[in-house]
What we know:
This protein is α+β, with helices and mostly antiparallel strands. The protein has two domains: 11-112, Ribosomal protein S6/Translation elongation factor EF1B (Alpha-Beta Plaits, 2-Layer Sandwich), CATH 3.30.70.60; 133-175, no CATH class. Helices cover 39% and strands 31% of the residues. It contains four helices and six strands. It has helices at residues 24-40, 77-89, 117-143, 163-175, and strands at 11-19, 44-60, 63-74, 93-101, 153-156, 159-162. It has a four-stranded antiparallel β-sheet, with helices on one face. A two-stranded antiparallel sheet has the order 5-6. The longest helix has 27 residues, at 117-143. It is elongated. It starts with 10 loop residues before the first strand and ends in a 5-residue tail after the last helix.
Amino acid sequence: MSKTKKTSSPYYELLYIISNKFTEDEAKEINEKVEGVITQNGAVITYREDWGKKKLAYPIGNFSYGYYRYMEFDATPELMAKIERTIKLMSEVLRHQILKRSIRTADLQEKPKPMFAFEAKKKDEEVKNLKTETVEEKAIEEKEIKPKKAKSTIKDSDNKVSIEELDFKLEKILETNDLL
C-alpha cells in the first residue's frame, strides 16, 4: 500500500502566526476566519493543531510573542492563489507559510512527529528512564541483590531515599556498557 493517496487536488500545509495584541478568544475568532477563507474557496481542511502562544525568534512589528496555528488541507492550485492573497492581506496574521506536502494516510494521521527540540528531548528522557529501570531490575534479578535500607536519609521534596539505595542504583548504572 502506498503512503500517498491519489486525489485530483494537491495537499498543502499552512503555518501562520497571529500577533499577541489579541486575546486568546480573539485569536480563536481569527483562526475561524482563516479556516473560513480556506473552506469558502473550496478547500477541505484535513488536520488542524493549535500550538498556543510562543516567543518569536525575533521581533516582528514590535511583537515578541505570537499565537501559532498549523493546518493541513486539500486544494487546487487555482484556489491556492486566492487563499495566499487573502491571508497575506489579513492584518492580524504576522507571518504565514504554505507548503505543498505529501498526503497523510490513516496510519500517519495519529500525530505528526515533534517539531520542537524540547518535545523530542522529553521522549528521549522517557525512553532513557525506562532503560535505566529495566537495567536496575535485571541487575537485581540476576544477582538477587536487594538494596539495603539504612537509617540515614536525604529528604528531597517529601520523598525519603536512603544513601545506600542511591549507591546501589549508581553502581548498577555504571556497570552497564550502554551509557551513551
